[in-house]
Design a protein that fits this description.
Largest interface: A-B, 46 and 62 residues
Distance between the termini of chain A: 21 Å
Mean pLDDT of chain A: 91
Shape of chain A: elongated
Order of helices and strands of chain A: HHHHEHHEEEH
Oligomer: heterotrimer
Number of domains of chain A: 2
Low-confidence stretches of chain C: none
Helix content of chain A: 40-55%
Strand content of chain A: 5-15%
CATH architecture of the largest domain in chain A: 3-Layer(aba) Sandwich
Number of strands of chain A: 4
CATH superfamily of the largest domain in chain A: Glutaredoxin
Largest sheet of chain C: 5 strands, mixed
Radius of gyration of chain C: 23 Å
Number of strands of chain C: 11
Chains: A alpha+beta, B alpha/beta, C alpha+beta
Strand order of the largest sheet of chain A: 2-1-3-4
């Protein structure tokens, strides 16, 4: 993907040139591109006058940030305790079986990414799967193939 | 005038409450309701009983409906709003089959005392007017007439202790910060609620944002701060939106900003979006994150009330703590201290989840017993299975067995038994939860969430995970149990921050109270709960099986064979031991046994 | 004020760390992440000691624990030895190839635990000194990457860093010999990057990499050094002598 320098500068210039805004700026980039492009990171280092290494350190520390481009649909599998004891591991295996991807991976066709997340605060509906901000509570292995198919057919975009 | 409150907490939203709210709003605006009855639809925060959402309450009749769908809207408007008759099928049905009309009579709510959650679920979080009508910002107004000393005294009198888990006396923390003559000072709200299975703070931020802002403003007056931050977890999209709007409203109304209620005092609040790191719930790591650095904690021998954000005096309080503050200032510390136990005053909010019948958010006086929480409020275990353990305090807490269910829940009691109340997560487990696997789960969680700075936490967790994985997969050795305990001791004693110091608790408590289960894994290569796949095989008892085919339909790999109304059987070669069949079976016909590892 | 360390009375200032006081009094406390230039990281936890204050004993980390009142410090109590031994056993598992860690394990009797027996692998103990040194003395070319048990120290994207000047400060402060530096006649290879070495114009000794000297010159606003520290002193002395003449006593 070609990323325009002006676009990155627009994200940067929304904030003063202070270290305290580095996380917020990185998050804005993440939101815009679904990952942190290298160009963005380098431009930010220059903008804040800080070493690239400290930003790389942050980008690999905070799980909200990703260095790899993500798929079109992001499947967030909640593996909080409530979901865990109500069988989220089964769902995870199910997704791996159906899509061939594990946590942090993206399908070769770029359609789905799988992210294991800790707790989405909907424990009463455990186990919960969230696809692109739509919550699916009380999920079962049985329902998975049909649900994924709706995304394959583009019904939920 | 009738008010229709539609719960729009995260749980109900996930259940589709937005569609219900939109339907109500649409129908009311179309005036399809009898024009003689004035009514308004209100989107509120979490009602607590998320399990049975979307929840709709009708005021002032105090009728509460559960599992409401958009298609029910017409009927509710016609029967309840226009003609004062309840829609029977949407009411709560108790164990005796009796339909219950009001929320107060519902056993889930009957035992609760709401202070921190006083407005959550009753007011519209987007409406400053609603908050003001519920005595909102009266405490701030009162605090503006008080000296800092008077505020501090009132806070100390209340006995309020930090709700994030550590339980440090809030009044004392504020007083220490007030005592330093170094400016600027900061007030920070810790909204990085990270314990998996806990969502108390998120619900307050979402459902009653102004109460948190008011608590921060009162703190700022007491310590002399003019700037504050709310650090809110990345995942809490609704909470951030709600707080952002509340800050905007409060500033526009002159309640916050350059001239607090005309007093000439200032307070500027801003939101910092968390980066997705559990360790940032740790105060010094959170501050590092606000400063735009990697969230590593530092040694706290010098406290952050002295040197916190940018080395300036900083008070950091948890969301629930702050939500209690306006109540204390308005009603007096003594009235707050009248609730609770000797050492733990007031109430505590718990997120009760897992294998309990009624899952959701509850607030009870400190000192309520686990049994009251799980059985009286929660209704006991789902599907009639036996209770096995309750995990409190998240990854820092411990697993408590049935013999200890009558212990009061407060800051000090559970600690004596190796567990802790923690921030309020409460995960109930039945006989199909494996305690070794639960310990392994928490250790694995922490392996990814530790900041990785200090040796005992980073390396200790890594080795613990290797050992626990071995045990779960049949490679454990009996001497591993002593090693786990020795590792646990070193981590507790020598780790840098509270995350590392408390990280072994889930392992140590399960070892203490469920040692037999570890031994079964190691010595008999058997997982008594039938969870550890390497040690479990599934089978169907032909005497119990009715041939209902539920298991066959649930099996993701078609390993269950059989025809309808005849006993089914599992093909062990195909079975992936996921347990879906056991979950699906209503006749308890699927059972587990050990596996021959050779 | 006064405290005792292993029953030895020691004078100290309020707020000083126990480790500093112990060192001044010749009492040994092992540590990996402490360097006089970069004190107080509190990362390796080897320097734990037991402090008895007002009759209560607790384990503290001596490199960051400030002495605020009179107390008794034990650096070799039974508890300290047990915890320190476990920490060393964990470090040996982490950095089996480091002779320095092996030596510490022997000196402090780290327990031989079958599960933690060393395999081959890295030498890094994640003490963080290299990152400190690079950030504060040099250019900040390396930092911690990832978190939790996966945490490591690396250059951005694990590629040769464009910022690195090859000064070698990181390798110099490393207590475990974990940062490989190859130095040949005219080149130094570190962090996967090759630097050309500059030799002293007078004596021919290596004075640094060209990039390092250029970076230092940029900071000070002067021309890059061409002489080693000794020869530069000699040169200054000569010019002083030329200006002021020989001093006769």
């Amino acid at each position: 993907m070609q990323i325009a320098k002006e676009e990155i500068m627009e994200i940067l210039q929304a904030y003063p040139q202070e270290q305290r805004y580095s996380l917020a700026i990185l998050q804005d980039m993440q939101r815009k591109y679904n990952y942190i492009p290298r160009e963005g990171m380098e431009a930010l280092a220059e903008y804040l006058g800080c070493p690239l290494s400290s930003l790389y350190s942050m980008a690999t520390f905070y799980k909200a940030l990703s260095l790899k481009p993500k798929g079109e649909h992001i499947i967030k599998m909640c593996d909080g305790t409530a979901c865990h004891i109500r069988g989220s591991a089964r769902l995870r295996d199910g997704i791996t079986r159906l899509l061939g991807i594990d946590n942090g991976e993206t399908t070769p066709d770029g359609l789905f990414s799988l992210e294991l997340v800790n707790c989405l605060g909907s424990c009463a509906l455990a186990p919960v799967v969230v696809i692109d901000d739509t919550y699916y509570g009380k999920m079962t292995v049985e329902k998975l193939p049909g649900l994924l198919d709706t995304y394959r057919r583009g019904e939920n975009t | 005038m009738k008010t229709i409150r539609i719960c729009c907490g995260t749980g109900c939203l996930a259940n589709g409450s937005l569609l219900v709210a939109e339907e109500f709003e649409k129908k009311i605006s179309q005036a399809s309701v009898d024009a003689a009855v004035e009514c308004v639809a209100k989107r509120t925060g979490c009602h607590g009983l998320c399990e049975d959402g979307p929840i709709v309450t009708i005021m002032p009749d105090n009728i509460c409906y559960y599992h409401v769908r958009p298609k029910d809207v017409d009927e509710i408007l016609e029967k309840t709003i226009a003609n004062d008759t309840p829609v029977e099928r949407l009411l709560y049905q108790n164990e005796q089959g009796v339909k219950i009309m009001s929320q107060r009579e519902n056993p889930f709510y009957a035992h609760q005392t709401k202070i921190a959650l006083r407005n959550v679920g009753t007011i519209s979080p987007d409406s400053l007017e609603d908050y003001l009508a519920a005595d909102g910002y009266k405490a701030l107004k009162k605090a503006l007439t008080m000296s800092p000393e008077e505020i501090l005294t009132e806070m100390e009198r209340s006995g309020l202790r930090g709700r994030g888990g550590a339980g440090f006396p809030t009044g004392r923390k504020w007083r220490t910060a007030a005592g330093y003559d170094v400016f600027p000072k900061y007030v920070v709200c810790n909204g990085d609620e990270g314990d998996p299975g806990a969502f108390m703070d998120g619900s307050i931020l979402e459902g009653d944002p102004h109460s948190v802002l008011e608590g921060m403003a009162i703190c700022a007056l007491a310590i002399g701060a003019e700037e504050g931050f709310l650090y809110i977890r990345d995942e809490y999209v609704h909470a951030r939106r709600s707080i952002k709007e509340a800050i905007r409203q409060a500033e526009a109304a002159g309640i916050l900003g350059d001239n607090i209620m005309g007093s000439g005092k200032k307070l500027h609040l801003s939101i910092v979006r968390g980066g997705g790191a559990f360790v940032c719930g740790e105060s010094t790591a959170l501050m590092a994150s606000i400063e735009g650095r990697v969230g590593e904690p530092r040694a706290k021998y010098i406290r952050s009330v002295q040197k916190g954000l940018w080395d300036h005096p900083t008070v950091l309080n948890n969301v629930e703590t702050l939500a209690n503050v306006p109540y204390i200032i308005l009603h007096g510390g003594a009235s707050y201290a009248a609730v609770g136990t000797g050492g733990s005053k007031g109430t505590k909010v718990f997120a009760m989840v897992g294998k309990v019948k009624r899952t959701g958010l509850v607030e009870v006086p400190m000192g309520a017993t686990l049994r009251e929480l799980i059985f009286d409020i929660g209704g006991g275990i789902r599907n009639g299975r036996p209770f096995k353990a309750v995990q409190t305090g998240g990854p820092s807490g411990g697993c408590i067995p049935e013999s200890m269910l009558d212990l009061p829940v407060d800051f000090d009691t559970l600690k004596k038994y190796g567990a802790m109340m923690g921030s309020g997560g409460m995960i109930v487990m039945d006989d199909r939860s494996c305690m070794v696997e639960v310990a392994r789960y928490y250790v694995q969680f922490l392996c990814g969430e530790s900041c990785g700075k200090c040796t005992p936490c980073r390396e200790g967790l890594k080795q613990m995970l290797a050992i626990l994985t071995d045990i779960c997969e049949g490679r454990g050795r009996i001497e591993d149990l002593d090693l786990l305990e020795a590792l646990g001791e070193t981590m507790q004693e020598a780790s840098l921050c509270a995350l590392g110091k408390s990280a072994p608790n889930p392992v140590l408590t399960t070892l203490k109270y469920f040692r037999g289960e570890y031994e079964a894994h190691i010595l008999e290569h058997r997982c008594p709960a039938g969870v550890c796949t390497k040690l479990t095989s599934f089978a169907i008892d032909p005497d119990k099986c009715r041939g209902c085919t539920a298991c066959a339909r649930a099996c993701p790999v078609n390993a269950v064979a059989g025809t309808a109304r005849h006993p089914h059987a599992i093909d062990a070669a195909l079975c992936i031991r996921c347990g879906s069949c056991r979950e699906a079976c209503r006749f308890d016909a699927v059972y587990t046994e050990g596996r021959d590892l050779s | 004020m006064k405290i005792t360390i292993n029953q030895i009375p020691c004078e100290c200032e309020r707020g000083e760390s126990i480790l500093q006081i112990a060192r001044r009094n010749g009492i040994e406390i092992p540590t990996l992440c402490w360097h006089d230039g970069f004190p107080g990281q509190g990362a390796c936890r080897l320097c734990i000691v037991e402090v008895i204050e007002g009759g209560r004993a607790k384990i503290v980390v001596s490199c960051v624990y400030p002495v605020e009142r009179e107390c008794e410090v034990l650096t070799e109590s039974e508890k300290v030895r047990r915890q320190r031994g476990m920490i060393l056993a964990l470090l040996r598992k982490k950095a089996p190839d480091s002779p320095e860690i092996q030596a510490l394990c022997e000196r402090y009797h780290a327990p031989e635990i079958e599960r933690f027996l060393p395999e081959t692998g890295s030498r890094c103990v994640m003490c963080g000194l290299c990152v400190k040194a690079c950030g504060e003395l040099s250019v900040g070319a390396i930092a911690t990457v990832n978190r939790g048990v996966e945490k490591e120290i690396a250059t951005p994207y694990h590629e040769p860093s464009s910022a690195c000047v090859g000064c070698g400060s990181c390798a110099y402060v490393c207590p475990a010999g974990a940062i490989p530096v190859q130095e040949m006649e005219d080149v130094r290879i570190i962090w996967g990057k090759t630097f050309s070495l500059v030799h002293c114009q007078d004596c021919g000794r290596v004075i640094g990499t060209a990039e390092e000297l250029a970076a230092a010159a940029k900071k000070s606003g002067q021309e890059p050094d061409t002489l080693c520290a000794d020869c530069r002193k000699k040169m200054i002395a000569l010019s002083f002598r030329h200006t002021y003449g020989e001093i006769h006593r």
